[in-house]
Amino acid sequence: MKQLFVFIRKEFYHVFRDRRTLLILFGLPLVQILLFGYALTSEVKNADLVIMNGSVDPLAQQLTAKLRSAAFFNVQEKQLSPTAIEKEFKKGNIKAALVFPSGFSSDFIKARHATLQVLTDGSEPNISKTIAQYISAIVQDFQREHQAMAPAPLTITPELRMLYNEEGNGSINYVPGVLALILMIVCTALTSVAVVREKETGTMEVLLVSPFKPVMVLVAKAVPFLVLSLANFSIILLLAVYVLNVPVAGSLLLLFLITLLFIITSLSFGLLISNATSSQQVALLISMMGLMLPTIIFTGFIFPLENMPLIFQWISNLIPAKWYYAAVKAVMLKGLGIAYVWKEMLMLCIMTTLLLTITVKRFKIRLA
Amino acid sequence: MVKCSSMKKNNPNSAPAADHADMPIIADHISKSYNKGAVNALRDVSFEVKKGELFGLIGPDGAGKTTLFRILTTLLQADKGQARVSGYDVVKDYKQIRSSVGYMPGKFSLYQDLTVEENLTFFATLFGTSVAAHYELIKDIYDQIKPFSDRRAGKLSGGMKQKLALCCALVHRPTVLFLDEPTTGVDVVSRREFWEMLQQLKRQGITILVSTPYMEEAVRCDRIALIQNGQLLNIGTPSQITDTFPVKLYAVKAASIYTLLKDLRSWTQAESCYAFGDLLHVTLGPHTGDDLALIREYATAKGHDQVTVQRIAPSIEDSFIRLTTTNSLQYGSADQS
Question: Are residues A36 and A94 in the same domain?
Fold first, then answer.
């Protein structure tokens, strides 16, 4: 027992004395969470919108006031010629333009049909799509208010509501994704590299020619990264709650449990890789290409799984991060209990058992 | 000409001893190949090391020394043959061997990012002991690196590293010590110190198997085995090995040593000729008359100045060169891995 303790302490020395490992451990979560939270978001805030209103029109003014009050837009009222609009778009000064035709009110009241022109910058398709959706939502809302005052006909207008994310906070979906990614990097890549380093530097030879049980080397290697990963998880969670304003809706304990399970799955993966390789570069390459890439692609936090061909959806079931992502989303964002995530947890348990069995079975007590 | 292919001639203990107690290391017809037989690392290697003996395995890089060490320290399995260390079988009883021997691999295999003291404490704990428990064994060695106990192992000089590695291999007071090329890449002074340390350890009753590519270090061992291409060429005390040098050896010198070498090599009377330091070592084939005069006459006839010829006692290296040349005559130059 004392041997294991001293071995684990040695592993902590290795981590804390290697700047690169430390940077990956604690720099990466910070960068990723802020990058995904702020820079890579499709959320639109304070987009420059130009409203052109040709005449004094009461309804057009009301609609303009409503658009102004929305936090999404930075509204300017201007009269611009079509060529001037194009120039502004090209310079990137405005993201959208709204053109009221003359007689907008009379069209709406008398003919019960009014049109208005919305121009967006199609060179940024994601943003322009979002802006167009926002504007049409506001216009529909406006239309409904006015129909309520008028007598029939009753028209059904679709009510768009972004469930679980009413404010349209874009970082909310990234937090579980970043969690999955970071834990995968720390547990899988760093653990496999840590074991392979012993082989590469020759210290494994000395370790093997000692009474220390060879399989315990794996345990000693995994424990520090388990502890560090939990620390990492806490950091990401704190950043998410206090910096990105993503609340934890469900049970913190359940979230912790699911994460612990996923960490063990990733550690087993790392140990399996370390078994099969004998150079740090190869171990890192396999961890990165073999696990990071599928994690990004098949987890569903960047590319929606529902849109993928069936075969890719099947493949995605083999990726542990997919199950973790789904479970974290359910617990953290939707506030669901264990009854809704037991399937995901079971999948992770099965994967872990399988990976650990292979790792221990394939573990060599000799050099070759 | 004497063929030295069989080591049994020089080693009366070659047959597997029934009593393992005074034979801490027994290798019995060990063969090992790599890459599915493409490379023969060891071919039918048998030898024994007596209790308390300092036994040297002498041979160039790639001779198979490290493979032999790994088989004896249970890190590799031999394709053929058996080996026992401290009476334990290297395959079946690998656990007992691992806890009772000390092993220092050829490559520096300590943690470079841990300090001297941390390394020592770690290995002591790993073997279920403490640094203090057998301190008297490592004291003389450890005292030399003690001033640097807070320094990271990676920042030590080559000689210091070897001393630390030796301390780590000794920390649990092993009965048998395996040192794979401990003096390679170490300066001359540190090498001499290292061999003195080994003599001291021997006095403490520890059996030591040490390998080295440096022939001149062979005389420091009680007995040696010469190894090349995975085969033991000869086993015996250093003097036994030089005594069995079958012919007379001459050192020849002249003003132009390079042309002299070429001339002697093209001389049918010369059996062998090779450069040795700033001299040429020459052996002659069968002939009548005085050897010294014959060499001198030939060299002078070839127009060489300041020719000196001297009969000398063969060194281990001379024996090794002779054994390898006769060996390659027998086996060709196959797989010089």
Answer: no
Given A149, A184, A218, the domain boundary residue is A149
How far is B165 from chain A, CA to nearest CA, in Å? 10
Query: Under 8 Å CB-to-CB from A307, ≥6 apart: which residues?
Result: none
Q: For B249-313, give the CATH class.
A: alpha beta
Contact indicator for A249, A243 with CB cutoff of 8 Å: no
In this structure, is residue A184 part of a structural domain? yes
Domain annotation covers residue A272: yes
Looking at the complex, report in whole angstroms how far the Cα of residue A259 sits from the nearest Cα belonging to chain B. 31
Instruction: Return the domain boundaries, chain B.
Output: 19-243, 249-313
Choose among A18, A205, A212: nearest Cβ to B105.
A205
CATH superfamily of B19-243: P-loop containing nucleotide triphosphate hydrolases (3.40.50.300)
Q: Cβ–Cβ of B126/A207 closer than 8 Å?
A: yes
Report the chain A residue with the minimal C-alpha distance to residue B165: A206
**Token couple for A108:** 């709406």
Q: Do both A112 and A23 map to the same domain?
A: no
CB contact under 8 A, B98 and A3: no
Return the residue of A nearest to B94 by Cα: A209
Tell me which of A102, A117, A149 is where a domain ends.
A149
| pTM for this predicted structure | 0.78
Closest CA–CA distance from residue A35 to any residue of chain B (Å): 33
Q: How far apart are CA A344 and CA B135, in angstroms?
A: 55
Residue ranges making up the domain that contains A182: 10-40+170-362
pLDDT digits (tens, 9 = 90+) for B32-66: 999 888 889 999 999 999 999 999 999 999 899 99
| Residues in chain B whose Cβ is within 8 Å of chain A | 70, 73-77, 94-95, 98-99, 101, 103, 105, 107-114, 118, 121-123, 125-128, 168
Looking at A47-61, A147-161, A272-286, B212-226, which range is the least confident one? A147-161
DSSP for B37-91, written as a single string? TTEEEEEEEEEEE-TT-EEEEE--TTSSHHHHHHHHTTSS--SEEEEEETTEETT
Euclidean distance between CA atoms B153 and B160, whole angstroms = 9
Pairing of strands B176-179, B207-212: parallel
Same domain, A36 and A109: no
